[in-house]
Amino acid sequence: MRIRTNRNERPSTRRRGYRGGSASSNLSLAESPAGQSLDVGRRLTEMRAERGLSIRALAEMSGLAVNTLSLIENGKSSPSVSTLQQIANALGISIRAFFETGARSSVTHIRAGQRPRAAFEHGMLEDLGAGMTERGVQPFLITLEPNSGSGGQPIVHTGYEFVFCLEGRLTYTVEDKVYLLEPGDSLLFESHLPHQWHNVHATPSKALLVLCPADRNDQPAVRHFAALETWPAREG
After folding, report:
1. Alpha-carbon torsion 26, 97, 211, 219, what sign?
2. In angstroms, what is the C-alpha Rg of the chain?
3. Given the DSSP bridges, would you call strands 195-199 and 117-120 parallel, antiparallel or unpaired?
4. Which domain holds residue 196?
5. Position 126 in a domain
6. 131 occurs within a structural domain
7. Higher-confidence residue: 41 or 225?
8. Position 183 in a domain
9. Could you give the angle at which helices 66-73 and 55-62 cross, rounded to 10 degrees?
């Protein structure tokens, strides 16, 4: 299923992205290459029922129209990522919870062709930890287009950040010090330190990124890629 702009969404309720990140209005969550569609409506119905909320109550909490929520739950509308973020905020969950399937497990095995993916303005973000998104470790495979970066503002979040360069060349700036990563190079740092990333070269780069937020409510992936908030306008 493809996430697209929902005309029933109230413009006044759209959230702005976090400060300190790049943002893109061209984000979409892609259907898995294996052809597995993501039943966001069913997940929303389940999570609303678990909390004993009526559609009307959730509409009041999220600032969305009852009809908008009803269409999403019945699979008649594909919500925009900003709409999903409004719902996630109202439910007190991460937006990624909409894309988990089945019961949470202590083991997650994802085949190469079935990873949840999010396209952002300068590349592709693939979730390597789907199904265990609230456990404090968030692993991603990132592909960056040539001459792309996280934006003009440094990123700051809780916990630690680990990056391992797989292909191409990638630079990280941490507290004004620049680190060049080539295939096989890695970087681990406390992510409260202001940081930015760039692929300043003429070829794409690919890296393993592991985010370890100290605060369960923190969403560092949103700050890096906007792929999980408006997973919106832009994050870095």
Report:
1. positive
2. 18
3. unpaired
4. 112-225
5. yes
6. yes
7. 41
8. yes
9. 120
